[in-house]
Design brief:
heterodimer, A: mainly alpha, MetI-like fold, 3-stranded antiparallel β-sheet, 14 helices, B: 432 residues, mainly alpha, globular
Chain lengths: 480, 432
């Protein structure tokens, strides 16, 4: 008989804390926790002592006090009697505004430059390479200053627009480029404005509906409808028609009476045209006829639908006095400056343009890398299937390239948002300039201001990276 | 048989026809032009548009550059000579050359010191950048920070010597103890270095800097492009080891260490550098002991180093993640402990993969050193926007100054990125 002896009872020795891998990580973490606690205590202690010595405390009460300074670029109501908190909100909105604008234009610049850099045209691809290298290798601060200098030192002052022999003139009589900013026409909100907006929204819906219809048709019958110019037509034509509706009272009264009839008529016309189009497509008739009828159907629907809306609206407001649906107020020279219109300040333009052209260079490289990452076999296989070059790009290369392009693109958007804090160099009132600049200097609340500032940027970047994670998992290759 | 065949054929070529030259359109420059510039009508239009663009740019810029004046003493004089012609007034560069490079307070008779430090920088960087140079040169690289500190700030030579001694002592202790345990060597070295610094720091007399060989220059007198270079070089070289440590910490399976690293990295990456510079200029002083005065340069270096080490950590983490799992397992199966596995197997490969990313961060960081002008330090951009453009002589000379700054940064950054591409080709061990 053998007996199994118990394994020797493990006794814990102190040296195991260092030499035994089971306990070593605990030791290290304990040391790390100790060091962390000590340094926090040390820093906190210093902070308390310094604050006491300076007679300060940590308090956010100053946010409620009147700010006492003006902000010339603002999206919401603000004057010098508003509170510091409101100044900060104005700054936040300004940051978001310039970041949003710059993201759009940087994407346009970047995609253009990235695609053109792969162009067969030697000269064009070299110019794009030079653009990318120049803008990537020079600090964005210098670009912001350069473009701000162009804005302030090269563009004419309002004085130059004055008199009979003016040295400067307005573009199209409605855009004025001055060293104080760019003045653009301002849309005036009238009763009919809602109609234009509604029509435009309906057009957008129409575009989606049309594209969806085209896709369904393609999968069902194999007929391929063009989507490019019809979408554009659906998007623009109804809105233009509504904008330039003849403003004749009789016309309006007529419409008010027959509004409902028109609406039903529009519906009928639309259905009839779609039916025609379907018949044309399934029969031997040409593609062109089919497309025209479908486009007509949507335009008819949106246009007449829009008119019946107008009629309905006017009958509600008691046939109010006749106003054009949409008016624009052009800037005009009054006294020493322009008045009317919307003033887009020089700092905003400088920051916007500099950020977009600088980040555009980085995006161009991302786009180029993404397109080159699609293996050549894909392009060749698509050509072998008989796809034309445009289709190869749209249907085969771009969908695969986007998977590579979008994650770095989003982090470039994040960079734009963070770089927009350079606004302080040209005096654009973003959140760094209001909360971290003037408010900080006026109240002396350095710690509170900087903490709030960091909190804002952290929130933005965490939001963007959360969005990126969601996107990444949604486009991940589905492996089964 | 052949005879009969020959009779039925009217003519038989019995010599080789000499090869004809290719058609004119298919050879030489014509072919190149046709294929690369005028392949399709649209392409041709693009080419013409591009040529016109180039013409527009050169038409304005070339006369402006070559007609430039170099010897006047003020913008007014320039305008007088030019008589309304459009040309550059480069004399601002010649007249304010020293201010642009060294700032406006650095003593003029000491300019040779930063110059020497700048030249030595290349000597020190050479063995790091080019592996074929003798490895002995790395000793000089190790000494360079202390020499450069002494040259630029001057004052008593004892301070850099003591700093060096502390590090040497720490190194010796590390070598001694690392054979028994990495942790013992590591912590022993840190303790030794601190002991040496504290003890020797007490021994240095208070007035050591007064009659030093090189007169002391306070940090606030540094400026110009020198300041950009100093910030860039210091912060990149400091942030590399910190970045490696953070990346390893983020990969660690010890939850506490991992979360400290994650929070640090994500926090730093989430805020713009400007806010960190605000911290350096207005907030960091509150966290130092009440009676100490830490100068702005050091505070800025701390914040920029934190900033770039977070970015470098993310780049290196990418490199670590790109290594196949087999490398980690192979190192384990050889019986290497964590420190050995990292030093010998993992980091060499991971760092090689991360080189392009690290260089990108370094270039970005160097460009970002211009931001210190926002917290009123007089770096190159600060000098241009502050003292020079505000002076009565040169108020209004924008393009020459901004163009000069852009050119300086372009040369450095483009050079670094070209080096990184060369290095990537050099280190590519796969055969393609």
């Amino acid at each position: 008989m053998t007996t199994i002896t118990d394994p020797p009872k493990e006794s814990f020795r102190l040296s195991q804390l260092i030499y035994d891998t089971r306990y070593r990580s605990l030791t290290f973490q304990a040391i790390a926790a100790l060091v962390l606690a000590l340094s926090i205590w040390y820093l906190g202690n210093n902070l308390i002592q310094n604050l006491r010595a300076a007679g300060l405390n940590i308090s956010y009460d100053f946010l409620g006090d009147p700010a006492g300074y003006d902000i010339n670029q603002r999206l919401i109501e603000y004057d010098s009697q508003s509170s510091h908190a409101r100044a900060a909100v104005v700054g936040v909105l300004n940051t978001l505004l310039v970041a949003f604008l710059a993201c759009i234009t940087a994407t346009i610049f970047g995609v253009l430059a990235g695609v053109l850099r792969l162009s067969n045209n030697w000269l064009v691809s070299k110019i794009m390479a030079i653009y990318v290298e120049i803008f990537r290798n020079i600090p964005v601060l210098i670009w912001i200053i350069i473009i701000f200098t162009i804005m302030t030192a090269v563009l004419p002052g309002p004085r130059a627009f004055r008199g009979d022999n003016a040295t400067a003139s307005m573009v199209l009589d409605s855009f004025a480029f001055t060293n104080r900013g760019i003045y653009v026409p301002k849309p005036i909100w009238t009763t009919g404005g809602i109609l234009v907006v509604v029509t435009f929204l309906l057009s957008v819906i129409g575009v989606f509906a049309y594209r969806r219809y085209a896709a369904n048709l393609l999968y069902a019958t194999g007929k391929l409808l063009p989507t490019g110019w019809p979408s554009l037509a659906i998007l623009i034509v109804p809105t233009l028609l509504v904008l330039y509706v003849p403003s004749n009272p009789l016309w309006l009264v007529l419409m008010a009476i027959v509004g409902l009839v028109l609406f039903l008529g529009a519906l009928a016309v639309a259905f009839w045209a779609i039916g025609q189009a379907l018949r044309a497509i399934t029969s031997a008739a040409g593609d062109f006829v089919a497309v025209i009828s479908v486009v007509l159907a949507f335009v008819a629907f949106v246009y007449f639908g829009g008119f019946s809306f107008l009629a309905f609206f006017w009958s509600l407001t008691g046939f109010g006095e006749l106003v054009p649906l949409m008016q624009f107020e052009s800037p005009a020279l009054k006294g020493f400056n322009f008045s009317g219109g919307i003033k887009v300040g020089g700092p905003l333009i400088a920051l916007w343009f500099a950020l977009s052209i600088y980040t555009g260079a980085f995006i161009a490289e991302n786009v180029r890398a993404g397109i080159q990452a699609v293996s050549k076999g894909q392009t060749e296989a698509a050509s072998a299937l008989g796809l034309r070059p445009g289709r190869v790009m749209n249907l085969v290369v771009l969908p695969q390239a986007l998977r590579v392009i979008i994650p770095p693109l989003i982090s470039q958007y994040l960079n734009i948002t963070k770089n927009s804090s350079l606004a302080i160099a040209v005096g654009y009132a973003d959140v760094t300039a209001t909360l971290g600049g003037i408010t900080l200097n006026q109240t002396g609340r350095a710690i509170e201001c900087v903490l709030l500032l960091m909190l804002f940027y952290l929130t933005i970047s965490l939001l963007i990276s959360a969005f990126m994670n969601v996107y990444n998992s949604s486009i991940k290759l589905k492996e089964r | 048989m052949s005879d009969t065949h020959a009779e039925t054929v009217a003519f038989v070529q019995d010599t080789t026809i000499p090869p004809a030259p290719p058609p004119a359109a298919e050879t030489g420059i014509v072919k190149w032009l046709r294929e690369n510039l005028f392949a399709t009508p649209v392409n041709g239009l693009l080419t013409i548009a591009a040529l016109y663009l180039i013409y527009l740019v050169l038409n304005v810029s070339l006369p402006w550059i070559f007609g430039g004046l170099w010897t006047t003493t003020s913008l007014a004089e320039c305008r007088e000579i030019l008589q309304g012609k459009s040309a550059a007034c480069f004399s601002v560069l010649t007249e304010r050359w020293n201010q642009l490079l060294y700032g406006f307070k650095y003593p003029a008779e000491e300019y040779w010191r930063p110059n020497v430090a700048f030249v030595l920088l290349f000597v020190a960087a050479a063995p790091v950048l080019f592996f074929d140079l003798p490895r002995k040169l790395l000793i000089f690289t190790g000494l360079y920070p202390f020499i450069a500190y002494w040259l630029i700030w001057g004052g008593s030579a004892l301070i850099p010597i003591v700093a060096l001694l502390g590090i040497l002592g720490g190194g010796l202790v590390y070598k001694q103890f690392v054979k028994t345990s990495f942790a013992a060597g590591f912590f022993g070295a840190i303790v030794t270095a601190f002991v040496i610094w504290i003890v020797a720091g007490m021994l240095i007399p208070e007035n050591a800097s007064e009659n030093a060989m090189l007169p002391a220059v306070p940090s606030r007198d540094l400026g110009g492009f020198m300041l950009n270079m100093m910030l860039g070089v210091t912060c990149v070289s400091l942030s590399l080891p910190i970045g490696i440590a953070l990346a390893l910490g983020r990969q660690s399976d010890m939850p506490l260490i991992k979360w400290i690293c994650v929070i640090f990295i994500e926090f730093i990456r989430g805020v713009p550098l400007i806010t960190l510079l605000f911290v350096a200029s207005v907030m960091l002083a509150y966290f130092f002991p009440p009676d100490s005065t830490v100068d702005l340069f050091l505070r800025v270096v701390i914040m920029i180093t934190m900033f770039s080490s977070a970015y470098i950590a993310e780049v290196i983490r990418g490199g670590l993640a790109a290594l196949p799992k087999g490398q980690y397992e192979g190192a384990d199966s050889l019986g290497l402990d964590y420190a050995q596995a990292m030093q010998l197997i993992i980091l060499p490969q991971a760092l090689k993969i991360s080189i392009p990313g690290i260089v990108n961060v370094a270039v970005g960081l160097f460009k970002d050193t211009t931001l210190v002008s926002v917290i009123s330090m007089f770096d190159l951009v600060g000098m241009i926007r502050g003292p020079i453009l505000a002076s009565t002589e040169w108020n209004g000379v924008y393009w020459e100054l901004l163009g000069f700054a852009a050119l300086l940064f372009f040369v450095v950054c483009y050079g670094i990125s070209q080096y990184s591409q060369w290095l990537e080709r050099r280190l590519a061990t796969d055969h393609r």
